[in-house]
């Protein structure tokens, strides 16, 4: 009996000295972190996104895109990631990111992507691209005041509970004899468990408050202004052998993609791309691509209409004009369905083609 009492005493003393797991939660605890789920630069370069005048923006996680231009199963898939963010700033606490220089915050938006498709001519194409955000009017993770009041209330309530637990531990340590200590053990454990349960509930509630504040902020600024610049290279490839690919260089592209929010429901977007095309079968050529898009809606549903032109001499000669319309449906914080229909016109605006396209973007969280 004496040995059992000694065992209980040691076990309780170890429990008293165990560190508390009560870190202050931040936005990283339960995110979304992005205003929108943008198309990967690789898919943008390959021209298989429903909207060719894509919404600029940046992700803070890994993402997978699928594109469908018909009901046939095709290898149209792209992956996207932000290496600087993942290596330096993807942490439970935001203080490191908020204290970073403007240059490092810009570098944290650098993303790389790679994608492969099979086009309507059954040609397999591959693209690799990198993109960086040069300007953004809002950044949810760089708004310390957004969570200031909620964090202060949390810290005060947490401190009160921690003080109660410390007082209980001190009073039990000062119990004059072992028999009295063991008599109060059951009551002590019940009180300690009650305080721990309140700490856990407090932390869970704080995470919900932070998430609600973040969601409200993102909804209010879903059409925030952005300016992206990207560069990418595309290839045609052929599977000559079972264990090798025959890559043929197709083109090198540089493009600028920007948007401006108009009120709370409108978004005006533009893109300009310059491409040099070089293949073994023909001499080097160049191509200009530009377009403008107008969107209306909310972060969950929005619709667009766009007009764009593609030419090998100058952007203001209407040789191949496309008018497209469609929209986005973000049916969860991590998944978005996009759809669009393109009507392609040739010289003198003669109708040439109708192309429906759908895609799914999935954040890998």
Structure commentary:
With 365 residues, the chain is of the alpha+beta class. Helix content is 29%, strand content 39%. α6 (148-173) packs antiparallel against α8. It is elongated and about 95 Å long. The model is unreliable at 1-30 (pLDDT under 50).
**Percentage of residues in DSSP E strands:** 35-45%
Total strands: the figure is 12
The helix-strand sequence is HHEEHHHEEHHHEEEEEEEE
Radius of gyration using CA atoms only? 28 Å
Distance between the termini: 52 Å
Unreliable stretches covering 5 or more consecutive residues: 1-30
* Helical stretch tally: 8
Largest pleated sheet: 12 strands, antiparallel, barrel
The residue fraction in helices comes out at 25-40%
Summary?
With 365 residues, the protein is α+β, with helices and mostly antiparallel strands. Helix content is 29%, strand content 39%.
Which SSEs are present, and which pair or pack?
Layout: H1 2-17, H2 41-46, E1 63-68, E2 77-81, H3 83-89, H4 95-98, H5 102-107, E3 111-118, E4 124-136, H6 148-173, H7 178-183, H8 185-220, E5 226-241, E6 244-262, E7 266-279, E8 282-297, E9 301-311, E10 320-329, E11 335-345, E12 351-363
Antiparallel strand pairs: 1-2, 1-12, 2-3, 3-4, 4-5, 5-6, 6-7, 7-8, 8-9, 9-10, 10-11, 11-12
């Amino acid at each position: 009996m004496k040995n059992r009492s000694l065992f209980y005493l040691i076990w309780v003393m170890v429990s008293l000295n165990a560190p508390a797991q009560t870190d202050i939660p931040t936005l990283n605890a339960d995110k979304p972190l992005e205003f929108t789920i943008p198309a990967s630069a690789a898919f943008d370069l390959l021209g298989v996104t429903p909207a060719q005048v894509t919404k600029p923006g940046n992700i803070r996680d890994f993402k997978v895109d699928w594109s469908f231009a018909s009901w046939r199963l095709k290898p149209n898939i792209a992956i996207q990631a932000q290496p600087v963010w993942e290596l330096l700033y993807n942490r439970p606490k935001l203080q490191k990111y908020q204290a970073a220089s403007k240059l490092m915050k810009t570098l944290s938006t650098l993303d790389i992507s790679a994608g492969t498709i099979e086009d309507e001519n059954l040609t397999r194409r591959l693209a690799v691209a990198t993109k960086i955000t040069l300007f953004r009017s809002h950044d949810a993770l760089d708004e310390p005041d957004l969570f200031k009041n909620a964090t202060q209330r949390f810290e005060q309530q947490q401190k009160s509970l921690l003080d109660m637990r410390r007082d209980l531990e001190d009073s039990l340590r000062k119990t004059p004899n072992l028999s009295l200590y063991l008599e109060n053990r059951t009551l002590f454990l019940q009180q300690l468990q009650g305080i721990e349960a309140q700490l856990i509930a407090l932390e869970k509630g704080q995470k919900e408050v932070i998430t609600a504040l973040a969601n409200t902020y993102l909804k209010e600024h879903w059409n925030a202004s952005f300016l992206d610049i990207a560069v990418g290279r595309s290839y045609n490839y052929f599977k000559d052998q079972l264990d090798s690919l025959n890559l043929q260089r197709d083109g090198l592209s540089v493009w600028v993609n920007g948007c401006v929010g108009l009120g709370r429901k409108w978004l005006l977007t533009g893109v300009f791309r310059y491409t040099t095309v070089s293949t073994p079968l023909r001499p080097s050529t160049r191509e200009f691509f530009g377009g403008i898009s107008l969107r209306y809606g909310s972060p969950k549903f929005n619709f667009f209409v766009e007009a764009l032109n593609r030419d090998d001499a100058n952007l203001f000669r209407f040789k191949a004009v496309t008018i497209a319309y469609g929209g986005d449906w973000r049916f969860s914080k991590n998944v978005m369905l996009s759809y669009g229909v393109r009507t392609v016109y040739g010289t003198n605006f003669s109708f040439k083609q109708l192309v429906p396209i759908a895609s799914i973007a999935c954040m890998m969280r």
